[in-house]
Description:
This protein has 187 residues and is an alpha+beta fold.
Amino acid sequence: xxxxxxxxxxxxxxxxxxxxxxxxxxxxxxxxxxxxxxxxxxxxxxxxxxxxxxxxxxxxxxxxxxxxxxxxxxxxxxxxxxxxxxxxxxxxxxxxxxxxxxxxxxxxxxxxxxxxxxxxxxxxxxxxxxxxxxxxxxxxxxxxxxxxxxxxxxxxxxxxxxxxxxxxxxxxxxxxxxxxxxxxxxx
Length: 187
C-alpha cells in the first residue's frame, strides 16, 4: 500500500485523512473513495478505486487504533515509524498534521472504544420504468421500480447497491415501510 500512497499527491491524501477523521467522529457517514479516486485520476494519476479503498481502510484503522490507545501525535508518529519504514515522507507529514489538529476529537469521543460495527444508510434513489420489448419478447410493457441504496460500510467506504422490483414486490416493500413508520410513531 505504501507504493500506492506514494502516487497520491499530498493535498488529496490530506483530504482523504480529513474525511476519515470526520467519519470516525460521526460527522459524515463515510468516505466517498469513488468520487475522490475520480478526481485523482482526472489530475493525471493512475490509481484505481480498490487501491484507494485499501489505503482508506489502513488509515482508518490507524486513526481508530491510535484513538483507542490515546496516543499523542509523537507517540503515533514514533509507532508508525517503527512499524512502517516504507511510508512516504509526505504521508507521514499529513498524518502528523491531521492527528495533531483533530486526533483529540476522536480520542475524546465516547464512542472511541466502540467504533461502528454495522453499515450506515446514506441515501435512497428510485425510478419507475417500463420494459417495452426485448430480443426474446416483442411486447413486454412490463413496469418495474429501480431502487439504488447508498450505504457506508463500517470502514466508511460508500457504495451503491441497486435492484429492481416488480410492482407487487414494490407494494410489499412499501407496506413494510409503512409498518416501520407506524412502529416508530409509538417510540
